[in-house]
Design a protein that fits this description.
Number of strands: 15
Order of helices and strands: EHEEEHEEEHEEEHEEEHEHE
Number of helices: 6
Oligomer: single chain
Bound molecules: citrulline
Structural class: alpha/beta
Strand order of the largest sheet: 2-1-15
Largest sheet: 3 strands, mixed
Distance between the termini: 8 Å
Low-confidence stretches: none
Helix content: 10-25%
């Protein structure tokens, strides 16, 4: 069960965050409403949510997932691969230090939390444009010291590993066709999203409820057929900025 979450409000300059997508501009008022619905949903699921104020120094600052990797024993503060996001970690470290032992990914290692998928006591670490081998190796050593196993997965054609795969409980994953072919994920039951619904592969399991982005009916119906409780949330503005449901919180 998750009991705690940290989120950070999107700031007025949210639209100036990183994204290769130049065709659409997010609407900050709509983003704030969607963010509020996300917080309300976590609270409804009995998660105590700490809401950090926006900081306009960091237009991508609402994507707090990338700043830390949480385990039952420690919080590992990342070193984001995107230079504009590197200093986002300090504020989060100050908050996490109140009830976690901190570990740190250090230069020249880079790592973003969106590249880290935990399943039980195993962590899959994506090697992406944001997470380099050095950062992944540092994380692996830290995890090993706390009794966790880990393995690396090459990430191509998407921002982060969790842009394309989510664990939805038991031994079941939702994932994109590309990731579904990887050796690493063969042992799991796999629900493969249609390419047109690939954004919906980023979903978030919180206290027996699966938060899914609204607007992806095929995968939603298949998940419902498995008997899972689904809560749909409009993520349109965060999608424009390459963010998804997992990106908006740190949960423990
Ligand atoms: C970025 O490019 O860093 C942000 N615009 C989106 C980050 C999304 N985070 C995530 O997938 N964990």
């Amino acid at each position: 069960m998750y009991k705690h979450a940290i989120v950070r409000l999107p700031g007025a300059n949210f639209a100036q965050g990183l994204t290769p997508n130049t065709r659409e501009t997010p609407d900050i008022d709509r983003a704030l409403l969607q963010h509020e619905a996300y917080i309300d949903t976590l609270r409804h699921l009995r998660v105590e949510v700490k809401v950090l104020e926006a900081d306009e120094q960091f237009p991508d600052g609402c994507f707090v997932e990338d700043t830390a990797v949480l385990t039952d024993h420690c919080a590992i503060i990342t070193n984001p691969g995107a230079p504009s996001r590197r200093d986002e970690v300090h504020r989060l470290a100050d908050v996490l230090r109140q009830d976690h032992t901190l570990e740190f990914i250090q230069e020249p290692g880079t790592l973003e939390g969106g590249d880290v998928l935990r399943i039980g006591d195993h962590f899959f670490i994506g090697l992406s444009a944001r997470t380099n081998l050095e950062g992944a190796t540092q994380l692996q050593s830290i995890l090993e010291a706390y009794g966790y196993s880990s393995s690396f997965v090459e990430v191509q054609g998407m921002l982060h590993l969790k842009s394309g795969v989510a664990h939805i409980g038991d031994d079941c994953l939702i994932l994109t066709p590309e990731l579904a072919e990887l050796e690493a994920f063969q042992p799991f039951d796999r629900l493969i999203v249609e390419p047109a619904e690939s954004y919906a592969a980023n979903c978030l399991l919180v206290n027996d409820h699966l938060l899914m982005a609204s607007g992806y009916p095929q995968i939603r119906n298949r998940v419902k057929e498995t008997g899972r409780e689904v809560i749909e949330l409009d993520m349109s503005e965060f999608r424009i900025m390459d963010g998804g449901l997992t990106c908006l919180s740190l949960l423990w």
